[in-house]
Amino acid sequence: MPTTVNDVTEKTEMLEIDPKSGVALKATIKDEISETEPKLTENEHGKEKLEGESENKSVEKEEKIEQEKQTKQAFKEEDVPVEVEPKTGVSFPVMLADGKQLKTVGLRKKSMLGLGIKIYGFGIYADNEKLKDLLRTKFGKAPSKPTKEMYQMVIDSDVGMMVRLVIVFSSLTMSMVRKNFDEGLGASIKKLTGGKNEELTKKIMGEASDDIKLTPGSVIEISTLPGYTLQTKVKGEIVSTVESELLCRAFIYMYLGEDPFDKEAKEKFGTSLLSLF
């Protein structure tokens, strides 16, 4: 690009001129490239570095999420070994896609017309690593047999757990399931607090419609999530998500408390805890 009059004027104004001789004494023109390059202060350098690190962490997080997603997609329960609940013949995979492991299996029976009716088989899953850390922190050494304190520790904890219920009673309806949990949770809450909380017990089945058809093999999954949140899925659809420490404790109490649905299942769960020490 040809030099303009303005360019010459600007450069001339940047020279020191001897007023007597008219000779240039000192040139103050700086390298045009350095003048136009932005200068970063120390703070800006630091900010640039932090932004770079933040971007790297963001990328790493996204990669981790994507990796977990791919792992879950690749995970197929039918490829995982199973444990069979002997009284119902229902099979439960020993591990879930999220890593939770099967701790015990059992049967929920209900007395109807003087008969013990098999309602559903169940499997209890838990985060093994978090259970292990909790046990070692609370107890240090393994006791000779499962103790009441061990069960209570699990009931009171915020460890991720899930109970999978597989229906075996052919005439079961959603209203019967709702009533069953209302009664069971009500009894658990009374044991834990000495009082009733009917409003809370009714939340576990949330918006589940009584029109939902339950047949043998239908699955209900109830999970305790971080932050004392209880989530219920019926046939794969989320019907309720309730944040309540009491409700989470009362739910696990039905299976591991003083009067559990299946005593043998509770004992097996306790034995599995001992193996974590």
Automatic annotation (TrEMBL):
<dbReference type="InterPro" id="IPR016088">
    <property type="entry name" value="Chalcone_isomerase_3-sand"/>
</dbReference>
<dbReference type="GO" id="GO:0006631">
    <property type="term" value="P:fatty acid metabolic process"/>
</dbReference>
<dbReference type="InterPro" id="IPR044228">
    <property type="entry name" value="FAP1"/>
</dbReference>
<feature type="compositionally biased region" description="Basic and acidic residues">
    <location>
        <begin position="30"/>
        <end position="79"/>
    </location>
</feature>
<dbReference type="Pfam" id="PF16036">
    <property type="entry name" value="Chalcone_3"/>
</dbReference>
<comment type="similarity">
    <text>Belongs to the chalcone isomerase family.</text>
</comment>
<protein>
    <recommendedName>
        <fullName>Chalcone isomerase domain-containing protein</fullName>
    </recommendedName>
</protein>
<dbReference type="GO" id="GO:0005504">
    <property type="term" value="F:fatty acid binding"/>
</dbReference>
<dbReference type="GO" id="GO:0016872">
    <property type="term" value="F:intramolecular lyase activity"/>
</dbReference>
<feature type="domain" description="Chalcone isomerase">
    <location>
        <begin position="149"/>
        <end position="268"/>
    </location>
</feature>
<dbReference type="InterPro" id="IPR016087">
    <property type="entry name" value="Chalcone_isomerase"/>
</dbReference>
<dbReference type="InterPro" id="IPR016089">
    <property type="entry name" value="Chalcone_isomerase_bundle_sf"/>
</dbReference>
<dbReference type="GO" id="GO:0009570">
    <property type="term" value="C:chloroplast stroma"/>
</dbReference>
<dbReference type="InterPro" id="IPR036298">
    <property type="entry name" value="Chalcone_isomerase_sf"/>
</dbReference>
<feature type="region of interest" description="Disordered">
    <location>
        <begin position="30"/>
        <end position="80"/>
    </location>
</feature>
